Amino acid sequence: MMSYGVGRFLAEFLTGAYGIMAFFFYEKEMGLPAIYPTVATIIYSIWNAVNDPLIGWITGKKPVLEKYGKRLFWIVLGLVTCSLAFLLIFMVPQALHAHKVAVFIWMVIAVCLYDAAYSLWEVNYQGVFPDKFRSQDIRRKAAVTSTAFGSVGIALGAVLPPLFYHYGDVGSYVTAGLVIAAIGILGSILIIPGVLQRAETTPMSEQMRQEAEPGFVESLKSTVRHREFTILATMLFLYQSACICMTGSVNYVVNGVLGMPAKASTPIFAAMLAGALISVAVWSRVAKKLDNNFLMLVITNFFMAAAAFPMLLCRTQMAFAVFMFLWGLGFGGCWTFIAPAMADVVDSIVLKERRRNEGVIMGVRAFFMRLSYASQGIVFWLCHTLTHYDTSAAGQQTALAQWGITAHIGLVPSLFFLAAALLLLIANPIPADKARANRATLKELGL
User: Fold this and answer.
1) Which of 192, 20, 50 is nearest to 116 (CA)?
2) Which residue in 153, 176, 284, 328 is a FRET match for 248, CA 20 to 30 A apart?
3) pLDDT tens digits, 218-267
4) Closest Cα partner for 327 from 259, 271, 408?
5) Is the pTM for the entire model greater than 0.70?
6) CB 139 within 8 A of CB 340
7) How many other CB atoms sit within 10 Å of the CB of residue 234?
């Protein structure tokens, strides 16, 4: 479970580092108008729409080193290439710096390469969970362990890079990228025990192996037709959009609102990390009593909405740290229940289709979650355009521009979290008693 948790650390670490660095780097450090990185993230999201489910389908059909688990090879390969591709995002050649269109093209290519490699490992990593951890108790324990690692990952992904880059120094971002790439490659070794899978044969699984596998388009249509999946995937998009906006806003807060150096972001993210780690034990106890993964997602999203909104009014480092701590309390809880809730959805789909097809399911899930980068780009572009944000390296932000920054760290994320909570509360995709019944039936069928 600890080794599997390393994967959650890496996912959040890379996502956090990308979220706080990429948009800010291209808008503020490279001097691109906000519309350029926004369009780049939209192109990346369109690429994502095909890339994620297709990779899940291909790697599910073509296992390598299958005796060690059909996903191990793809996870390790994807992690190594993803780490190197992350570095490439910030290695914009000096000759391109004066040409905005050339820098924009570099961003599009680098981000799409990074996303392809990220999808290769993360889609397969997520596909391990429902099959490897099967009972509700085991899933909860594995999720709690992963949440602890993931909480450290998202905080470290935000705290560590600012120690190596400095506002106004483009080359320092490459140094930060090297550090992040090194951690990613090290993680590709530590994750191996957690994603090894035992080879099992049951009458039902043997029958499934002999049946013709559906094609990619058929598998994709089948996945999105399931109501429980589309509801949870939409909730994940809203939740991740809020998280990316919040973490991606901190550089803008430190630079444009507080007027402090990059290292000043460390206490803010450290407060969030403290809240997330403290919350894991608390939320896991509540979860045992309620035994309802989707209800826990509703409660924690409401909590995060309440914690995020006051940041619209914050103007001091201490105030941001306090509310980031409170948000961390909700974040740790929410992330604890995402994997078990997704496993409940996978169980429901497997029971309906009588086959395991986690590759495509997790691929479509990954698309919904990383579509959040487009949300971040659009939100930042609108806020900065409407409030006349100054993209020049030495620019001082007006009071109006500062309101725009605090809107995309506080107000907008709060609305995203609120929408996510209301969606699950109203739709209730899988009641707790149905989830328990599904697990029992799958065990009887040998699935």
Assistant:
1) 50
2) 284
3) 666 777 788 888 999 999 999 999 998 998 899 999 999 999 998 898 89
4) 271
5) yes
6) yes
7) 16
Element (H, E) at 417: helix 412-427
Cβ atoms 432, 292 nearer than 8 A: yes
Looking at residue 212, the DSSP 8-state letter turns out to be P
- 5 neighbors 193 (Cβ within 8 angstroms): no
Give the Å distances, CA to CA, from 254 to 20, 190, 248, 373.
Answer: 12, 34, 11, 21
Query: Which domains occur in the chain, in start order?
Result: 2-445 (1.20.1250.20)
Residue 362, both tokens? 């997790």
CA-nearest of 194, 192, 188, 191 to 82 is 188
Residue 392 phi/psi, 5° resolution?
A: -65, 150
For the purposes of burial, counting CB atoms within 10 Å of the CB of 335, is it exposed (0-12), middle (13-18) or buried (19 or more)? buried
Q: Residue 238: CB partners within 8 Å, gap ≥ 6?
A: 416, 417, 419, 420, 423
Two tokens, residue 174 = 């490459």
Task: State in Å, rounded, how far the first CA of the chain is from the last one.
Answer: 22
Residues 398, 403: Cα–Cα separation, whole Å = 9
Q: Are 84 and 181 in contact (CB under 8 A)?
A: yes
Minimal CA–CA distance to 175: which of 185, 161, 189? 161
Structure tokens at 44: 């990346």
Q: Rounded to 5 degrees, what angle do the CA atoms 122, 360, 220 make? A: 145
pLDDT at 365: 78
What residue spans of 62-200 are helical by DSSP H? 72-89, 100-132, 136-159, 170-190, 192-195
Degrees to nearest 5, angle at CA 222 with 140 and 432:
30
